[in-house]
Amino acid sequence: MTNFIRVDINTTQADGKSIQHSGAETEGINMRILLLSPHTDDVELGCGGGVTKFLEDGHEIFWMVFSTAEESLPPSLPRDSLLNEFKGVLASYNLENGQSRVFNYQVRNLGQHRQEILEELIRTKDQFRPDLVIGPSKNDYHQDHQVVAHEMIRAFKSAASIISYELPWNHVTFDTQLFIKLQRLHLEKKCEVLQRYKSQLMNEKSYFSEEYIYGLARTRGVQCNAEYAEAFEVVRWML
Q1: For residues 109 and 148, is the Cβ–Cβ distance under 8 A?
Q2: pTM beyond 0.85, yes or no
Q3: CB within 8 A of 87, min separation 6: which ones?
Q4: How far is 143 from 207, CA to CA, in rounded Å?
Q5: Of 71, 78, 171, 221, which residue is most buried, by most CB within 10 angstroms?
Q6: Running DSSP on this structure, what letter comes out for residue 149?
Q7: According to DSSP H, which parts of the chain are helical?
Q8: For residue range 171-221, what is the model confidence (pLDDT) as tens digits?
Q9: What are the φ and ψ backbone dihedral angles of 219, each rounded to 5 degrees?
Q10: Is the separation of the CB atoms in 130 and 165 below 8 Å?
């Protein structure tokens, strides 16, 4: 029989009240957290500090990536550049290959594989049995992110807590309903793993800059009385 224990991931609601998460867990293991990334760098950008904190606190991580975006790479780079960069991120987090699964659906075409993605999520639900699922927001206007957000909810709406990370360049609106408080060391790690994406740094995207990462985290920290934080929308929360 599965035991139930209370674990604290140090989260804060938008009203300032702290909340704790209790999930179905086996003896001696904290939360099982499933990370969903439409493309290889989305989770790191949206909650890279939170991932560091989860691992620091001993939670179990499984990470799914649905596209390595080969088609969006400059012609001068190998097609597997983003895949290899993601493997570097796993190594930086001290995660093993068995703690992730990477698909190679064509970028901006995940909608053509919606049912396949749903079936993979259901398979992972049955095998990994996550307590918490973290993925893109329904308010994210990138077409691939929309697919993963909606299939995430379809697959896990009655099985796990679900929260969505923030990628402001893709949003018109975003409801900052939950905050994960962070320390500077968590932001340092987030910046470190993002530096693995040399193929993206070549494009000088502003949201990869340390100035942006620290600025947004400081803003979210001000909202929850912390030095730094990452913000999330709450889709489903189970106690």
Answers
A1: no
A2: yes
A3: 97
A4: 19
A5: 221
A6: H
A7: 42-56, 81-92, 114-128, 143-156, 184-194, 198-201, 210-223
A8: 999 999 999 999 999 999 999 999 999 999 988 889 999 999 999 999 999
A9: -60, -50
A10: no
